[in-house]
Every structure is written in C-alpha cells, then in structure tokens.
Amino acid sequence: MSAYTALTTAGYRAQVRDKTTVFFTFAFPLIFLVVFGLVFRGRSVEESGFSYLSYTAAGVLSWGVANAAVFGIGFTLMQWRADDILRMIRMSPAPLSSVIGSRYVLALGVGLVQSVLFVGVAMLPGFDLVPASRWPLLIPVMVLGITTFLLLGVIIGSIADTPESVAGIANFLMLPMAFLSGSFFPLDAMPDWLQKVSLIMPLRYLNDAVSAALTGRGDLSDVGVGCAGLVAFAVVFGAAAARTFRWTKTS
C-alpha cells in the first residue's frame, strides 16, 4: 500500500468515526438554507427579479463547502503537528504531496456529498430551487473552489499551534468574507465600494460561478471569470502554503 493510499484510508476512517463533526459539516449549510428559506420565502430581488433563494442557496452552498475545506485541513495539520504525527511522516518515505493529496481527496469527497445533499434539499417543495440547464458546470467550479480554500486551510493549519488559534484565524477570515462576498445577502443590495472590496475575496468568485452554474444567474462568462479568479487565488495560496508549511513546531 502506498503512503498516499494509507494516509487517505486512515483519514477517511478517522473522519467517519467523528460522527459529531460529520453531522455538523453537512447540517450546518442546511440550517442556513432553512433559515433563509423561511425569512425570504416568496420574495425576490428587485434589481434582477431572481428569488432570494437563488442568491442564498448558491451562496450558502459555496460558503459551506469552502468552510469545510478550510477548517478540515487546518485542524488536521495543527493536530498532527502537535501530536508529532507530521514529524514521524517526515521521517518516512512519504512525501509532502502524499500528506496534502490525501486530505485533498477527502475534501473533494466531503464537498461532493455536501453539494448533492444541499441541492437535493433545496429542490424540495417550499424551497423550490430549480437547477439551471448548465448545472454540470458546478462540478469543475466546486473542484476549483475546494482546491483554493484547502490551500488557505493549509496556511492556517501551518501557522496555528492550537485548536483555538485555528478556529480564531479561520473564523476571522471566513465569516466577514461570507457577508462581504454575497453568500448570505445579494451583492446588489450593498454599496458600490463594498462590491469592489469583495473582488479581493476568493469566496466572491466561488459564489458568482456557483450562482451562474446552479441557478442560471449570470451567463457562461460569469462561470469563466469565477473559475479564473479561483485559479489565481489557488496559485497565490499554494505559494504561501509551500513557504509556511511546518512539519514540527520549530521547522
């Protein structure tokens, strides 16, 4: 068995054993969907005519997938370093690519299940989400989104030494980004200067691409621009992650 396969298998088993984390990983976005569905039921955004649900469903799905990618690997790297697991892996023939690659596959699996579950619930009567005909584009968009935010999680997990610091840094970045990138409220309702600020946030590009692919809000160019933005952020985060990664607390 290769190091990559062994790490992936061990990571999968550890993940499914932690039933509390599994439950909230998948339930958290659904709770927001239910809340926003009840609050904005039957209402539409005046500027576009789209229902609020078409905004919030795509935005909450993007935020939930990004959140899971960031927190999942952030906590794992911090804990593995604290428990000396990373140091032992370093002494083995397993390369760093096997460590990150195994977590990447798990993050893709979590994102896939999250997306299928979320869209399935959003299509139920009461929410009435109708996926656009170009919904298959959601797959590459999600892969790029998970890649980008997983690399951000690698940075956080590399510079944080305690669970509290991982949660603090991740929440400091992800919560404001969710509000300023249009995950919870339409960007059209925000001042122009805030809409411009959102352009420096990767979640904005994931939101736009998911909205265009899933709900048809926007056109194919929005999917392309969103994917291009995610690729750019992935390159930047990847470079930063390579510089900040630590096998131990001191190196």
DSSP strand tally = 0
Q: How confident overall, as mean pLDDT? A: 88
Low-confidence stretches: none
**What is the N-to-C order of secondary-structure elements (H for helix, E for strand)?**
HHHHHHHHHH
Beta-strand proportion:
under 5%
C-alpha termini separation: 28 Å
- Helical content stands at over 70%
Radius of gyration: 18 Å
Largest sheet: none
Q: Which of globular, elongated, flat, extended, rod-shaped describes the shape?
A: globular
Structural class: mainly alpha
Number of distinct helices: 10
What can you see in these coordinates?
This protein has 251 residues and is mostly helical. The protein is 74% helix and 0% strand. The protein contains 10 helices and no strands. The longest helix has 31 residues, at 52-82. The chain is globular, with a radius of gyration of 18 Å. The model has no long low-confidence stretch (mean pLDDT 88).
Characteristic key phrases:
mainly alpha; 10 helices
Task: Kindly summarize this structure in a few lines.
The protein has 251 residues and is an all-alpha fold. It contains 10 helices and no strands.
Strand and helix layout:
Layout: H1 3-17, H2 19-39, H3 52-82, H4 85-91, H5 96-122, H6 138-159, H7 163-180, H8 192-197, H9 202-214, H10 220-244
